Amino acid sequence: MSPIAKIAQLLSTALLASLLAGCERPPINTVQTGFRGTGMEQIYNPRTLAKEAGLNQAPAAPEAAPADGPKAREVYQNVKVLGDLSVAQFARHMASITQWVAPKEGCVYCHDAQNFADDGKYTKVVARRMIEMTQHVNAAWKPHVAETGVTCYTCHRGNPVPAQISFEPKDRLYANSALGDLAGQNLASRSVGLTSLPFDPITPYLKEDKPIRVNGNEALAMRGAAANRSSTKQAEHTYGLMVHMSGSLGVNCTYCHNTRNFQSWERPQRTTAWHGIRMARDLNNDYLGPLKESFPAARLGPKGDVAKINCATCHQGAYKPLYGAPMAKDFPELLSALSVPAAAPAAVEAAPAKTQ
Q: pLDDT tens digit string along 294-308?
């Protein structure tokens, strides 16, 4: 074989390897969820499922503590939430938070060992607000979390900072590039499954309230009130969000959508997802955003913003966080909020088919 032929063979082998690198090796499992021939199927990689199973094991709940005796606020100083718990219940909850959030660091991750009442550590200020946020989710967003509810472990999984959080990415300006204005595309971001779609689906949809539904109600409607005035670029941004949700839950489009009519709301998962999008906006804007001044600069993003939640923060590859393990029932103090913002129930009660 001539040197040129060998080089050509090597190049062709390298090209083939690069193409196959984006493929998943068999076996791949397919589960039919609708009538045959309609494409209503869920596709699963058993190796991915095995990995996700290890990430979604709920810890055993500690034995319930007695409710009698003095209240925590009567014994301890500066107890601004959970003060109505008995001392035993309060100690149980604090021990649980330690295991959920900082099992290696222990109590001193949030507390000054010399003065537990002191608010000098930002982690304590943030943790207090996160307890209130958890109560709010369980009380105001049942259309998304149902009776399963959430605890700190739902997001943290034993880590001080949840593994799946989002910051606003750095600006990527290509207006003067030879490639033209890329509009945030072709950057293979993990937030959109390493595709070429617009790389930030979190800011416009899970923080801001940009329109998600971009398809028209009539085929090829070109004029009048029924015309679809959304651009292809808007559709690509929306599809970026859908890819993010698909990867976050470990499912494909047919989990929420009907292949014969993507606009249909007949699959209940779509309504659940609709509430989840609005829940994320609520939490990002009313709970996480206002904490910006509490965080040190090292914990802020490249644009100086606080971390935001997204679908993967709770789900972490599972269609239900922790595969639906009802952890919250073992911590009734997290099932009700002391105060529920007026805007949250309105968002829950809105009709999804008319709003999105």
A: 999 999 999 999 999
The helices-and-strands tally (H runs, E runs) of the chain is 13, 2
Lookup result for tokens 């993967």: 312
Residue partners of 339: CB distance under 8 A and separation at least 6: none
Report how many domains make up the chain.
1
In terms of Cα–Cα distance, which of 184, 276, 201 is closest to 241? 201
Phi and psi at residue 179, to the nearest 5°: -85, -5
Residue 134: Cβ-neighbour burial (10 angstroms; 0-12, 13-18, 19+): buried
Cα–Cα distance, 356 to 343 (Å, whole number): 17
The CATH number given to whatever domain includes residue 241 is 1.10.468.10
Which pair of tokens denotes residue 175?
């207006």
- The angle formed by the CA atoms of residues 331, 336 and 342, to the nearest 5 degrees, is 155
The pLDDT tens digits for 256-269 are 999 888 888 999 99
Residues 72, 58: Cα–Cα separation, whole Å: 27
Q: What angle do CA 20, 24, 29 make, to 5 degrees?
A: 150
Q: Does 84 reside within a domain?
A: no
Task: Name the pTM for this structure.
Answer: 0.84
Q: Is residue 261 helix, strand or coil?
A: strand
Domain, as residue range, for 198? 29-61+128-218+226-355
Please name the amino acid found at residue 239: Y
